[in-house]
């Protein structure tokens, strides 16, 4: 049984396969239980729904307790009070009853997501937002043919979402403005930083920027211009320090007497360098092996070392998030 409530969030994730008829989800009343990182199962995992719910709730409890101990817990309630508001459910109709926002969290598989939204479309009324966590699948494909398409959008979080607050809001061409507005307000309410992508584009904004950076990083390594380790330092000890607080456009604005001054001063140099950018890399073969070996020197690719490094990364992001909360621009 779920706790009694009148509104809430549902985070949906399937267990066994695209043809499975149930949705394993956690129901999170709002606004006191904020954006919790939930390790949802993947297709092919045939454990019972009860086992999955127990695992999800156990992991959530552990994570929230650690967040509370470190002073990073969001919301106005303590960890135990928030946990009392969270429940598991394996029946899709029961899971979405009385909700105002459904956040789909199944793997990045178009057919799988379409099947789930087709089921939701038959159940929900006109008052609930249907939102996908997709990182790059276009809303026009995700929500094609749905009756409630005006209530649909992508709300793409960034991992780990508890410490990296950005959420990209991407509308379907028929998404109602009120759907975008409601989701924007909800994300702000739970401590996230939503941005409006005004029309759909492959990769949205974050991944387009990320892939542009990765592409040039790969080309520089492939051409023998810089080593993989030094390339990462260019970001972590260079650009990344600025970009943690201000974006590339504000960086331009501040690095001259305003944006127009920057463009006048550096326009020709930027255009000259951009013309030298090479073709799209294959991300395979000898270069991939070279980069892999360099990364394994830093972090061996066994599960233990990778998990430890991710934990260290998340701890750094948690401390950075706390610092950003303390530093207000003039």
From TrEMBL:
Q: Which Pfam families match?
A: 3HCDH, 3HCDH_N
Highest rank taxon of the organism: Eukaryota
Q: Which GO terms describe its cellular component?
A: cytoplasm
Which keywords does the record carry? Answer: Cytoplasm, NAD, Oxidoreductase, Phosphoprotein
> What range(s) does the 3-hydroxyacyl-CoA dehydrogenase C-terminal domain occupy?
203-277
Q: Where in the cell is it found?
A: Cytoplasm
EC number(s) per entry? 1.1.1.45
One Gene Ontology molecular-function label: NAD+ binding
Q: Name one GO biological process term.
A: fatty acid metabolic process
Q: What class of enzyme is it?
A: oxidoreductase
> Boundaries of each 3-hydroxyacyl-CoA dehydrogenase NAD binding domain copy?
63-200
Family, similarity comment:
Belongs to the 3-hydroxyacyl-CoA dehydrogenase family.
Query: How would you summarize the oligomeric state and partners of this protein?
Result: Homodimer.
The molecule here is called L-gulonate 3-dehydrogenase
> What gene does this protein come from?
CRYL1
């Amino acid at each position: 049984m779920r706790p009694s409530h009148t509104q809430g969030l549902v985070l949906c994730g399937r267990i066994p396969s695209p043809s499975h008829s149930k949705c394993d989800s956690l129901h999170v009343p709002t606004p006191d239980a904020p954006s919790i990182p939930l390790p949802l199962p993947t297709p092919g995992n045939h454990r019972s729904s009860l086992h999955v719910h127990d695992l999800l709730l156990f992991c959530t409890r552990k994570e929230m307790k650690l967040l509370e101990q470190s002073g990073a817990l969001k919301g106005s309630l303590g960890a135990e009070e928030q946990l009392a508001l969270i429940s598991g459910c394996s029946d899709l109709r029961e899971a979405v009853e009385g909700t105002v926002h459904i956040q789909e969290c199944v793997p990045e598989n178009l057919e799988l997501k379409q099947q789930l939204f087709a089921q939701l479309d038959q159940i929900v009324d006109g008052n609930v937002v249907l939102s996908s966590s997709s990182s790059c699948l276009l809303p026009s494909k995700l929500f094609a043919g749905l009756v409630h398409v005006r209530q649909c959008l992508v709300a793409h979080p960034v991992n780990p979402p508890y410490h990296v607050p950005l959420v990209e809001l991407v509308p379907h061409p028929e998404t109602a403005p009120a759907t975008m507005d409601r989701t924007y307000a909800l994300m702000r309410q739970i401590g996230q930083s939503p941005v409006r992508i005004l029309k759909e584009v492959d990769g949205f904004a974050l991944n387009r920027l990320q892939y542009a950076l990765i592409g040039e990083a790969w080309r520089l390594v492939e051409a023998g211009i810089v080593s993989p380790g030094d390339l990462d330092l260019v970001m972590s000890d260079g650009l990344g320090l600025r970009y943690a607080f201000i974006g590339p456009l504000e960086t331009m604005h501040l690095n001259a007497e305003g944006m127009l001054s920057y463009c006048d001063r550096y326009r020709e140099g930027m255009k000259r360098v951009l013309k030298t950018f090479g073709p799209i890399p294959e991300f395979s073969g000898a270069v991939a092996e070279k980069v892999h070996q360099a990364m394994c020197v830093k972090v061996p690719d066994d599960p233990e070392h990778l998990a430890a490094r991710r934990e260290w990364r998340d701890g750094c992001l948690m401390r950075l998030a706390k610092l950003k909360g303390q530093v207000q621009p003039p």
